[in-house]
Amino acid sequence: MPYSLHHGDALSILSELPDDAADSVITDPPYNSGGRTAAERTGRTARAKYTSADAQHDLADFDGENKDQRSYGYWLTLNLTQAYRITKSSGTALIFTDWRQLPVTTDAFQAAGWTWRGIATWHKPASRPQKGRIKQDCEYVVWGTKGPVDPDRNPIYLPGLFSASQPRKDRKHITQKPVEVMRQLVQMCPPAGTVLDFCAGSGSTGVAALLERRDFIGVELSTHYIKIARQRLNEALRASTGRDDLDLAAPGSD
Length: 254
Fold this sequence. Notes:
Elements: E1 3-7, H1 10-14, E2 22-27, H2 38-43, H3 46-50, H4 69-86, E3 87-97, H5 102-111, E4 115-123, E5 138-145, E6 161-163, H6 179-185, E7 194-197, H7 204-211, E8 215-220, H8 223-241
Parallel strand pairs: 1-8, 2-3, 2-7, 4-6, 7-8
Antiparallel strand pairs: 3-5, 4-5
């Protein structure tokens, strides 16, 4: 089966996955960011933080947004440590973050054993200008490897800047990433390799992986979003194989 989708707490499920099960980790964890004060960052829901008041959608909220920076760093370190064990030698990891959480993300990344190699930028053209301020139209991807880089294993050349707006039509998740960006990032995984995403959300990383002919292991806590992810993954698998007759049910612990 090209993908498996597991429903539950990321750390619990990661601890049950075998060594060397993945070639790349690509994930978009809850940032636990937003707000001017610690109370605003820990006391507001994801929807309150990341959705404007006049947003033309009513997307479901998600848990995991109530950590202060220290507890977020601890949580991320624990999960990235398990992901490190699961990833093959010279495998890659790419972790989304924003400007507030960039320092703690790079700390957690290295504390978990990964060798930090750099930061890529995701530029969002549709973001709003802010009067008297510099426009906040970028998020970031912290990336690195498990041990040395092996350029012969996957000889690709990717840019350091990716530009695409969040999807507006048929958007499924509050913080959904553009599939066109994710399709480029999953190329960090060698052809026919396996991508792991322990915060799968609505499944954009997995959709990109399947469209790029990689296998996928996803973990998602939300009952609401795992159903959406499974539907999107099945659609991507049909598209990548050209078979509309597939009757799919992803294996996993849900």
